[in-house]
Amino acid sequence: MIKIPLRILLVEDNEADVLISLRTIKKLVEDPHIEVVEDLSSCRNKLINFIPDVVISDYNLPTCTGLEVLQLVQKKDPKLPFIFLTGTVHDEELAANTILAGASGFILKRHMNNLEDKLKPLLKQVVFRMSEKEEIRERLRQNKIAINQINDYLDNLRLDNREQKDNISKIKDAIKDFKTGRDEDDRET
């Protein structure tokens, strides 16, 4: 069972498929936060206000297609994992096109009785990516702490002579450039 709480946006119009999906997700994830929508407008709202970790979407919806949902998701967050759960994808070419369009995976609804086995590796991949991002965020946080400590130290140095003042100003400028991502070449132009 996945121990990390997952925020899942389920885009589905079929009530029976919603119930099966919810039951399966709750078997796989210890603490899922699931929102269910069935149209683009509601999906857009949830992408802004709910901010899911993964989107699971039907391909054929009453007011739009799954590809439109995928495009909306990619516009809001190109790295957000997106899984199709659909009965429409019958041929391999269409399935391949969904992956080429940016979907992280797809599950055919004809496999709903095996949904747990099909969904589990895809959700584990989402969790793996989340832990990678968390590691990067922690490193960035540690770097910001170090920069703040250096700035604080420099602010507290006694500025006894002109040369020391100039050196400290150069160090502070270099730190500001590092924080904003500018490099040496940008400062010279």
From TrEMBL:
Modified residue annotations for 4-aspartylphosphate: D58
Database matches in SUPFAM superfamilies: CheY-like (SSF52172)
Chain coiled-coil ranges: 147-174
Domain Response regulatory: 7-124
Presence of keyword Calcium: no
InterPro entries per the UniProt record, alphabetical: Bact_response_regulator (IPR050595), CheY-like_superfamily (IPR011006), Sig_transdc_resp-reg_receiver (IPR001789)
Source domain of life: Bacteria
Keyword flag Phosphoprotein: yes
Keyword annotations: Coiled coil, Phosphoprotein
One Pfam family cited in the UniProt record for this chain: Response_reg
UniProt-listed PANTHER family: RESPONSE REGULATORY DOMAIN-CONTAINING PROTEIN, STRESS RESPONSE REGULATOR PROTEIN 1
UniProt name for this protein: Response regulator
Organism lineage string: Bacteria, Pseudomonadati, Bacteroidota, Flavobacteriia, Flavobacteriales
